[in-house]
Amino acid sequence: MFKLIPRENVSPVLSLLGPLFSVGLTMIVGGILFYFLGVDPFAAIKMIFWDPLMSETFSTYSIPQIFIKGAPLILIALGLSVGFKANVWNIGAEGQYIMGAIFGASFALSLYPLESIVIFPAMILIGVIGGCLWSMIPAFLKVKFQVNEILVSLMLVYVAEQILALASLGFLRNPDGAGFPGSRNLNQYTSASNAEIIAGTGIHLGVLLSLLMVIFFYVLLFRHSLGFKIKLLGNSPKASGFSGDNPNKLIFLCLTLSGSLAGLAGIMEVAGPAGQINIDFNVGYGFTAIIVAFLGRLNPIGIFFAGIVMALTYVGGELTQFMLNLPAAAIQVFQGMLLFFLLSFDLFVHYKIKLKGNK
Amino acid sequence: MNNKIENTLFQCRAINKEFGNVRANNDISINVRSSQIHALLGENGAGKSTLVKIIYGLLQPDSGSMTFLNEEYSPKSPKDARALGVGMVFQHFSLFEPLTAFENILVGLDKELGEKELHASVIMLSESYGLEVNLSSFIGDLSAGERQRVEIIRALIQKPKLLIMDEPTSVLTPFECESLFKTLKKLASEGTSILYISHKLKEIADLCDTASVLRKGAIVGEYDPKKMTPRELGEIMVGQSLFEPKRPVAANRSNKVLSVKINEVKPDTQFGVTLKNIDLAVYQSEILGIGGVAGNGQEELMQVLTGEKKDRNVSIKYMDNDIEMLNPRERREIGLAFAPEERLGHAAVGNLNLLENSLITDPKKRFQMKMGFIDFSELNEYTNEIIEKFNVKTTGVSALASSLSGGNLQKFVVGREIGQKPSLFIVNQPTWGVDALSAANIRQAIVDIANTGAAIILISQDLDEILEISNKVAFLTNGNLSIPTNTMDIKTDEIGAIMGGISD
Question: Contact at 8 Å (CB) between B429 and B460?
Fold first, then answer.
């Protein structure tokens, strides 16, 4: 039998090496997986990590795409990381992301075809509120009835998906859409379109906001007393109570932040790259962002880089899909491995293994 | 020193141990004779813990040798040490909180023993040595004193020939101490030698046959504690003359600072204590000492006083305000300060550095700039001030709290609170496990702020401490508080009578 013993001194170098190590190991094990799928592993790994950035054929399209795909990941992961620091485990950002999109889109489409400059900011605000309201459900149940927020937030993802289907097929369906599911395209509604801010790249406001939020969260966590309160609660609820903090307020704060940011990501996506509410609107950013948060060590700067790496696997993954016929699921396995290896590595950073038994 | 070899049970010769650049043990040789209680005296950081860890097999010496029962002795692990007949009771408990007292004893055994058989021998041990413990209680619900009794039973059940006790009385009352001393003397007379680590010089004089004094990693000498005064012994230990804090002189004792009335407050856990009929008041420049055996409501009373637990059946008046519904931060803002018993995980957090630990209590928003941003330069200054004023031994403000020794962390916590210049300071067990010089300094600091007009509530299980610096004393018994009496008027046998009916 093995026994895990906590290490007295956790090496900060090793702790920083974790994300790099897990990316490396994911490449190796992922390559083996690709080999058995009948694909040249070196070509596939190169296509995921190298070609989007360096290949002349792909990079002009790929590099902006990395930021576009990275933006929702970074936004959501930033919000989640604050909660994770306080031991508040919001696993349902995917649902909050969907609800943000539905709330914002419903508001904008209810005004169609009215044109006004107020619509766009109001739509964003309502999207943020939508995401936030969805995360208030687990917050309320946790504070009031001590219900585990992991379960509630996760189950609410499936509720949100049903509402998404209902919206696509019902109350938001495009009246001019010949009966196909899906709402009107917001990109064709000038007042509500999250248009590109750099012509020809597809880079939209959400990308800019994701960068600003990295700075905002860095300041919040490391320079502001709220960040300290969150850290204190996560480290010792008893000391937090002794300090005079109300844990319930902090739980609400954490879920407000994570829900709002997921909602923001949702409304930015639906009014921008996605364009419309449809059954397949959500592609798992809310779940992948959990990986991003941990890969970034719950640190805003780290989350930025982790979001970019993860976006790279999305963009590169798409490339391998149509160039090498790799199945989409293989890329998801690839992303999952990243978290798995990171968590395993962390285990060895924080614990040492001792053989237990009759020696 | 005329050691007769045949009398020697345990011997270590020229033990050296270095940690980085620090020489924790420098050429240490001691000689423990059989059937003796041998004291190991020294300040925090003098190297006592390192030495006993080497003896117990937790650490390996860099050089040097040991003999036990006239044979070469070099344990590679505590298990080896126990198998050869060396047992140890730790200062910091190594018990599993979610298990019961009995399960903890069961789990700690190296040899398989039938549960019934074990139960019987535990009961026998606990009765014959006066170690009362409710065996079916969960450790998490036991007080420090009760936990220690579990630890002692756990060590005794292995029938050691050499028993190492690391500051065993730091959580015990005089009554408990006396019965512990009886236990130890009985064990010694039955042939078990005891290596006894303590800062309490009086008890060493009462109990021990020999005392080895350590200072800065080296042996200063071996003394006969029965032939010396505690003060002489203490001065050898710290290498300088010691002082005794004097209780505060009355200045303005007519101004009532705090009055507390509690009808009944039920505990949060099944094994907690119900507080009943508590009526106390504390005045300016006065120290009110609250004594009592561990687990008689100290923890619960402290929570009510800090505001971590609010209850309608409590009335707390501070100056002229009702404050029972205020939270800890709000109470601090109007001039209260608290230092709870548990240093790590309550008063301070091990995973946070000292700067962040200063931030835990910030009543005057001193470390906050506009809009709640942290003022790191002010925080740095304050934290350095604490470290300097209270002589906290640390590598600096960015050291983790967990890297400080117990005594140093306690100095930091008390310093952090006193530095806020409170009008009322409530402290629980301020010198638990703290060395003599630090303890005297902490007491002096408490007396000093009382002399400048602060009111103090000193909750402590150390009766000597309470009698030394309190103006009034009261005792907690089963959640009831006795009527506060002037310390000068109280007699030792009265204390015994008040605390006598305690253990149920």
Answer: yes
